[in-house]
Every structure is written in C-alpha cells, then in structure tokens.
Task: structure prediction
Amino acid sequence: MPMTESNPFLSQSRLALDPEDRQAMEAALRHAIAFREGIDGGPARPKLRPADLVDRFSGPLPETGEPAPAVIEALATEARDGIHPHLSPRFFGYVIGGSMPVGTAADFLVSAWGQNAASSWESPAVAVIEQTVCRWCLDLLGLPADSGVGIVTGATVANTQGIMAARDALLARQGWDAGERGLFGAPEIPVLIGADAHSAPLAALRYAGFGPGRAIRLDTDGQGRIRLEALENALNDCANPPLVVLQAGQINTGASDPFAEAIPLIHRHHGWAHVDGAFGLWLHAVPALRDRLKGVAQADSWAVDLHKWLNAPYDAGLSIVRDRAALVAAMTARGAYLPEPGKTWEPSDSTLELSRRARGVPSYAILRHLGASGVRDMIARHCALARYLADRLASDPGITVLNEVVSNQVALACADDATTQAVLDRVQTRGRVYPSHGLWRGRKIIRCSISNHATDRADIDVLVEELLAALREAG
Ligand SMILES: Cc1ncc(COP(=O)(O)O)c(C=O)c1O
Result:
C-alpha cells in the first residue's frame, strides 16, 4: 500500500479500513470482551494507583508512531490493572451504573459510525434515534411529552442547561433579553437551593453566572429535604421571581424534596422550579414508587443521568425543559451552513455543544433491550436490595443505618469516625466489594449505592459479610 513519506501510518489508501486497522479493531473487541468476562470474580477495585501507572503512559510524545494493533494491544494490557471495575455488580460506590453490555456494544457502533450528532441533515439515523430516546424517556419518567430535551454528558451539564434556560426565561419575563444583552446590568434573580444540594447544581449556578455564594440556602430536615417553612419564608422575601433548585435523590440519603407542596408555592411567586434528579428522578418511572416524588412533574426543568440508574455507558444525561422554546433559545447555535431553524428537530438546538458524538444511541439500545417494564423492574429491584441491605445490618449494634431507605442509597456509620474509616479502608482494600465514603450530618459515612443492573441479593450478602468482618477486625 502506498505510504506518505513523512509517516508510514498516514495511509494514502482510499480504503477506510486497511488490514492493520481491522486488526486493531478486532483486538479492541477481543480485549473489551475479555475485560468484561474477567470482572466476575475479580476484585472490585483497581490494583494500581495513578503513581504506579505514570511510567507506562507518561513518556514524551514519540517522534515516530507505532502500528495500530500494537497501540491497542499496549493500551489494553498496560491499562488493565489501573481500570476500576465500576461495572462490577459488587461496586457500590458513588452512584455509578454498570455500562450495560448492549449499551456498550451500541457505543462501539457510535465510534465506528463517527457521526457528528449535531445535525439531522448530516446524521439522519442518529437524529431520529436520539429523538426517540428523548420521547421514550419523557414517557418513562412521567414528564410532559412536549418538553424540550437535550442529550448531554451528564447531570452537571444537564443542571447547567436547565439553570441557563431558567435564567434567560426569568429575565425575559422582566423584559431583559439575556441572549443579546448578557447579564451585566440585568435585573436580579433570587436563587434558592437546599442546604443539602449536590455540588453539581452549585457548580451549575457558577457556570450560569449566578454565583452560588449569593444563593439562599434553605434549611433541610434530617434526610436532607428542604423544609417548606424555610422555602415559604425565603419566597416571601424575594423581590423578583426566583429560580428554585430542588432535588430528587439526595446523594447520601436518596430522599427527595416535597415537590407536591413546594412547586405550586414557587409558581405562586412566579418562580421557576428546577429539579436535580441525577439518579433519583428514575423513581418516577416506577408506578409503585412514584409517590416518593409526588408532584415532580409540575417542575419547569429537570436534570437526570442516563449513565447512572439507566446503566448507560459514560457519558450521557438528559437536560429536560418543560417549555422547549426556552431551552432552544438558551442553547441553539445556528450557522448559515446548518439547517434552517424551525424546520427539523436538531439535536444541537438543545445542547451546549454543536459537534458531538451520538451519545444517545447506547441508551436507545438499552431501552429497546430492557423495554419499559425492564427499566421499571431494575429500579424497583435496586430499591428493594437497598432495603434488604439496611434490614440485614439493622440487628448489628456496630453499624447504624443513618437514613430512611427510600431509594437505592444506604448511608452507614460505625460508633465513631475512626471506626467508620477503618471499616471502609479494610473493605476497599480487600476488594471483594467496593462501597465509597461520604460525610453526612458531620459524620463520616460508608455510602452504598445499588445501581448496577447485575447486582443481586447474593452481592448484598457479600457486602454485609465484608462490612461485618471488617468491623470485627477494626474493633
Ligand atoms: C444528586 C446528583 N446531582 C448531580 C450529580 C452530578 O452528576 P454527573 O456526575 O453525571 O455530572 C450527581 C452525581 O453523583 C448527583 O448524585
């Protein structure tokens, strides 16, 4: 095959795939499958830390390249021990989904297709698939069917987009065109947010120019839910219609704000209710659990992840805004070479990015594979497993379940912080299971999140066994 003079790996072949490229792709697939098959029974934590990996990956950029198959072989083998098996059914840290195999397989296609998902003209199949994901998710989540939806990288960006749409709409109601005039000199928008909100919506406030420091933090109850009295008092003090950031699924307790009472109150003050529902909003997909989020569908915007409870591969989340026009006005960026506004559904109208990968496709595959009942069953099963975990630990005086278990999150603490830390360290070091750390009401906690599609009762039994064994050793 003819090669360029300067670099033998810049192929001049008109074939999109030469034999070495094919070999590289096949090697990647082989290694991907071997990795997945090795998860079961392997440790739920990585063997190596960043410092152990520096020598393997951090050399100077080589002047001459390597053949594609060699690069892939090296990557797969050299990274292996530094890969955290987040997708192990015994990984209980943070809130992390299991990158479901059917979604991962679809993700291979996404990379192979190399579509720029910005435009329906350029990537017709992807645009239709992603629009379907949006429709299916609105339906599953019980949110208004005509809402605007952007498929974004995750809940942080989803929160940012929702807050930006709220900002522009609230300012427009006061006669200020933020899209044209920006924020300098704009009327005030009061911002209210719960004292136990996740850091992501606080960052989103910063990105949107609100400054989290000027937000009014609302008092919360023992589970992290805003107190209605605090909300009401703060609303009464607002000179202008406010933005109120609510939460479905507190990271430590899984508890949700009292939407049924809070949202009508916010609307009575002509405010905008935004809900950070990164994982918790999925409870609304399950009829039997829907009451735990009663009234959430009355909000003006929502942020939810696909890569957490739906178990989509990273990175994927949804930015949902009831008034699609408000989302599009805040997000759209049309150049003369792009489709005419208003004629077609354009993915880029609802996201901060123009060019991006077709990140909705893996979720389409997962939704089609599980069906609505499969998604509902998975969410309900995880909640039941969280309850089972709490019940199994209830009789042990050495470990306390700190939260009311209302979703998939269980917050555990031992008699004092030192013991909690020692137990967590032992459990993580042994590596049969992997819960993570947290801080709740001034106490160190062991946080267990049940959000992997494959986790079952036997995995919870191992988690209990490991926690109790570590407690005995620590004591
Ligand atoms: C309640 C909540 N909001 C927002 C986020 C941020 O989500 P992401 O990491 O997908 O941006 C998280 C992540 O755990 C979360 O639990």
Notes: The longest helix spans residues 361-394. The mean pLDDT is 95. The radius of gyration is 24 Å. The domain at 106-365 is CATH 3.40.640.10 (Aspartate Aminotransferase; domain 2).
